[in-house]
Each structure stands twice: as C-alpha cells, then as structure tokens.
Amino acid sequence: MTSASGGAIATIDPSTEEVWTAVATADAADVDRAVAAARAAMDGAWGRRTSPSQRGALLARLADLVRRDARALAEIESRDNGKPLKDTLGEVQRAADWLTFFGGAADKLNGEQIPYSVDALAYTRHEPVGVVAAILPWNSPISLASWKLGPGLAAGNAMILKPSEYTPASMVALARLVEEAGFPAGVVNVLPGDGSVGALLAAHPGVDKMSFTGSQATATRIMQSAAASLKRCSFECGGKSPFIVFADADVGKAMAIALQSAFRSTGQSCSAASRIFVERPIYEAFARELAERAQRIRVGSPFDPASHIGPQTSAQQLAKTTDYIAIGLEGGSRLLAGGKRPAHLERGYYVEPTVFADTDNRSRLAQEEIFGPVTAVMPFDDEEEAIALANDTNYGLVGGLWTADVGRAHRVAARIESGLVSVNTFRPVHYMLPYGGYKMSGIGRENGFDAMKAFTEVKTVVVDLSTAPVADPFPL
C-alpha cells in the first residue's frame, strides 16, 4: 500500500514506546483518488447493479475471512492500541458477527406501500446514499469498522475508511481481506492519515455522508465542513456515563460490573462507567470495596495472559489522563486507589486504575470525558436526586441503574437522558440493538435495522392508476 506522496506513519507500540511498523499516509491526491474510485464503483459494478443478496453474500464471505484471520488481526490491534490480546481477539470475533448479521440483513430492507389513494400505487424505496466516508477511533478500530462497513455495504454504498493515525495497521490488513472476499474495486477504500485527511473528506463534494466516532469537538468541525454540500452526518461522540446503584440492588453483581465497566480497555471506552452514583446507606462500603478491587487489577503487557488491562494507546492520551487525575486531586476529590504509574512498569503508557470519591458532580473530573481508567464515586439520597445527577451533563450515550424495585427500574430508565439505558447490567452491545447518544453524545444510531436506514435515502414513488380523463387546467 503506497500513497501519492510516498509518506508514511510510524506506529508506536504503546506497551514499549517503540515504533513497530509504518503505514502509508494519505494526502489530498489520495483522497481524490479514493473518492473517484468509490464513485466509479457506485456507477459501475456496485451501487444499483449489485443485488442485495449479492451484497449479503460478499459480507458473509468477508466475515468468514475475518474469523479465519482473527488471531493475526487481534495481534495487530494489540500492538497498535495496547489492549490485551484476549480483548482484541474477542473484538475481532464480534466484528465478524456484525458483518454476518448485516450480510443477512442486506435483502431485508423493505420499503412500504402507502394506501393514500384508490387510484394510485404509492410505495417507498430505500436507496444507497452513495459514497460514505467513515472516520474511526483508535480504541476499537476493527470492531467499529464493522459497525460502519456492515450497514453501509449492506445498503449498497461505497465506503472510505479513515483510521486513526495511532492505529492504522489493522485497517490495512482488513482492506486485504475485502479484496480477497471479492468486493469490486473501489467499493472499500482505506486512507490512513491524521486529522487533515478527515477534514478533506468532510469538505469533498464527492462524499455524500460522513460517519464518525470520536470527540464532539471533531464532530463539530466535520459538520461545519459538511454543511457546504449538505452531507448526511451521523456521529457517536462519547459519554460520561452514570452508573446508579440503589441500596436494594444486588450489590455484589453491581460491584463486579462497575469494575469491568470502568476499567475495561484501560478506560478507553465511550461508555465507561466514569460516574458511579451510590445510595448513601451503602456509599462508603461500596466506594471502599471498589477501590480495593481496583488495586487488584493487573496492569501489564497486552501479550501477557495474566494482564487484565494494558497501557493507554498513546503518550498524548496518557498525559491527558494524568492531567485529569491532578485535576481531581486539586478539586478536592478523595483518592481511594491508583493515580500513578505502576511501579513494576518502567516503559509504556501505563497508569493505575484510579478511584476517586466525594467528587463534585459539576467538577471537570465528573463532567469531561477522560478516556482513561479513572472513575468517580458519588453519593445520592433518593431517586429524584439520582436522576438529576445522572442527567446533569452534556453527554447522553449510556446510563445504567441497579435496583430490585421493578417500578423504580422503569421510572428511572424512562427519565435518564441516554440513548441506551440498562437495568441490572451495563452497556449490552449487540448488532441488533440501536446504539447512539442524546445531547452532545451524537446524532443517529448504529446497529440494528435503524443503522441500515441511516445509510439510505428514502424515495417515494407514486404511479397513477386512474383511467379517467384529465380536464384541461387552463381552458380557453
């Protein structure tokens, strides 16, 4: 894989801080070439000339190839972003499941007949938007690529993937599998590069839709650029997820899921349980045990089977996380666990799982997305206060609550301002469950048939069936 300029990105292994490979980096000429190739595919061997069942068969073949090469793809991902190999292997296998689902859904996106008149046949068609540019984050590249490729290709679009400059290698490997699966040339294009490549795609008149997962600041810039040509946009922009534990809950189960939800992927998850609200009668005991368990989490090399979590993905992200830890300390939060580099790791972008208590919900620590292994535990006194605290944020991606009271479960779930609310579990993610955010957490939904519809235009067709003559509207 080469670029027009011959430039390359050096990718760093975050567990060693050493360059482990290099990937060609795109420039303006490469963006133009990719858009031209995608448009040619839409006008040629893809687009409206390939049947939904044919698209589905290609997606199924790609899923099989991803399963075949799951170990190799996972090793690339772990080397690129620092996640433990067991985690990246699970993500790759789930990506294959996503592709399989959307392959099967490709021929099930139906329009509808509209009985608006006895003298006309009216119906709708779902047609592809056209050329879609999908910008991926660095925390789960292959997994989130499947969230965009699956519905986008099933709906008949041509796709341009722009991976993060921190984690481009797995997308290059995936592109080879797309070719092996038999997709026509130009249907899937990969453009590694920094933010300037994404900016070029957002401004390009040949791109019809932008699909982006990342920060709200970047989403705002994409929307501003896309506005010139009224591109369709869908965004998933992170969260500051409330995790509410009522005193009547199964506290043991809630504790285990809180740990997993706060610290999996080294906290580099848009749905991390970064604000844990606990009813006051059990607050101190819960916070203390959470901190004790966080200290048992093994931080280490992604390739050590004993490691529970790995490093942060980049030096920049590590610096951001440590800055927020300092903000928490300066703001009066009580540090219960973590807050520094693990003593046994001299190199790599590592930080201990960190637990704060007594945090002010209006503080930066509680309001801003950290994207690191840092959580804040805060007390509440009653149901109304729990809801108010949960909703007191600009984000609204995921929320969860724990209670044995069925009535409370439904009352609180209805009032939490999040695109996904879970009761007595947290963040169930499945290819059939729509996923997306309220407020600054994004626009639109991924997964399920809602995701496929977001990659289509709805066309209304009306056929007049009347045999009656039409009077001259402008008689002499």
Number of strands: 17
Q: In the CATH hierarchy, what is the class of the largest domain?
A: Alpha Beta
Separation of termini?
A: 70 Å
CATH topology of the largest domain: Aldehyde Dehydrogenase, Chain A, domain 1
Strand order of the largest sheet: 11-12-13-10-9-14-15
Oligomer: single chain
What structural category characterises the helix and strand content?
A: alpha/beta
Query: What percentage of residues falls in helices of 4 or more residues?
Result: 25-40%
Q: Averaged pLDDT, please? A: 96
Largest sheet: 7 strands, mixed
| CATH-assigned homologous superfamily of the largest domain | Aldehyde Dehydrogenase, Chain A, domain 1
**Do you know the CATH architecture of the largest domain?**
3-Layer(aba) Sandwich
How many distinct domains? 2
Strand content: 15-25%
- Radius of gyration computed on alpha carbons: 24 Å
The tally of helices reads 15
Uncertain spans, ≥5 residues at pLDDT below 50? none
Q: Tell me, what's the shape?
A: globular
Question: Any overview of this molecule?
Answer:
The active site is at residue 236. With 476 residues, this protein is an alpha/beta fold. The termini are far apart. Helix content is 39%, strand content 19%. The model has no long low-confidence stretch (mean pLDDT 96). Strand 4 (131-135), helix 5 and strand 5 (158-162) form a beta-alpha-beta unit. Helix 3 (70-81) crosses helix 4 (85-105), helix 7 (195-203) packs parallel to helix 8 (216-226) and helix 9 (251-263) crosses helix 10 (280-294). The protein folds into 2 domains: 8-237 and 437-462, Aldehyde Dehydrogenase, Chain A, domain 1 (3-Layer(aba) Sandwich); 242-423, Aldehyde Dehydrogenase, Chain A, domain 2 (3-Layer(aba) Sandwich), CATH 3.40.309.10.
